[in-house]
Every structure is written in C-alpha cells, then in structure tokens.
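Weekly puzzle thread! Below is a chain. First person to post its structure in token form gets bragging rights.
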Amino acid sequence: KYRLIVTRDGYITHQEEFETPCDGSAKSIKKNVYMKKLTLEDFLPLTVYFENDRPDYKSMSKTTKSDYAYNYEQYYPKKEFYADRYLPRFKSGDRAQIEQKVFDFFDKKLKPGKDSLDLFSKILLEILKSGEKITLEVQGYASPLASTEYNKRLGSRRVSSMINHFYHFQSGILKPYIKSGQLKLRQVSFGETKAKRGVSDSRKDLSSSIYAPEASIERRSAIIDVTRNGKMKK
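Winning reply:
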C-alpha cells in the first residue's frame, strides 16, 4: 500500500492511497494528479493566535499599531517557555507527553495560522488585481482571564493587529485597494464571550489560565467570512 501526498503553494493538497502487486509485475506506476487552486473561501475560518494580553500589554485601547507578523515573531520562540510553565499543574504524568500538548498548539495551530494568513494574502492580491471587490469580516476573541470589558477591548486590538497585516503586507501593496474601498475590512470583537466553558480565569493558577493550550486557543483573531461584490467599475 502507498499513500501519495502532493502539495503546491496556492493549491489544495491532493492525497490518495493505492496498492500495487507484490510479485514484481508492476515495473512502474504512473499517477496523473489534478490539483484545485485554493480560493479565499477554502481558508475559512482563518485563525491566528496571540500571546496572553497581546498586543499592547495592559492597554485599554481598542486599536494597536503592531501588525500580526510582529506579534507572531514575539510569540512563537516562547514554545518551550510556555511548556515549562504549563507543567506545574501536573503532579504526576509523562513530562514529554504533557509538553507535547503545548508543542502541538505552537506547531499545529500557531504556525499554520501565520502561514495560512500569508498565503491567503497572496491569493487576495491576485483577486483584487482582477478588479473584484472583496469584504472580509475579522473577529477578535480573548480567554476569560481579566474583566469582560478589558477582554472586549483586547479582542478589538487583535482584530486591529490582523488588519494592520493587510496594510503592511508586501510593503503596503494592498493599501491602495483598502483606501479605494475595493477591499473592505469589517471588524467585530467578542472578547471572552465565546470562550469555551471550563477555561480557567484564575490569577492564582497561571499554569491553567495562561499557559494551558486550552487557554491559548481562546486568544485569537479570525477571518470568518469573505463577501464578493463583483467587479469595480472603471
């Protein structure tokens, strides 16, 4: 049995399984692979993740000057730091297995989110070049640590950070489309109101409320909708 996986930037990954005789009669195997180009909708919901109380630590502002790339670059190198501070909540157990839960968040959610945002932006640029009008809905969320009002503002800053990404992408190549109204960015902050039940909000147990993967997953911003509005008039 064989599993064939074919990947290419801008295309949906192709995967299939097949069998071949074991008697040596099959001297060669040929497979024609037809790949479908990715569309913006294929990414939805496109989710990126933030460090605790970022961007802009202890701020009551609803906006930020930092873009998502900066926040990601500050966050991802702290993978082992987060794992070390997650461990104290466990009195026993396999250390490697417990650490792996944190590593899985960083490598299977945090990093792929950033990679997807970059690829999404490249595809978005090509669509805008063709003249199509696009509206993106960007939502912000927070873990339950801190007050409800603070978390709503924090969710807004996370949306603001993601929107800054589009302004700064490839040295501002998308900025003219935003200013002309061809690319519109709709913003919503839910703060902590969408956080899953059971996620800790304890200031006395930061291992659970900050460093646990369950809390990390709640600190995010996401593009949840793409609206296409036809071609721009010349």
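Puzzle host: Confirmed. Bonus trivia for everyone else. The CA atoms of residues 5 and 174 lie 33 Å apart.
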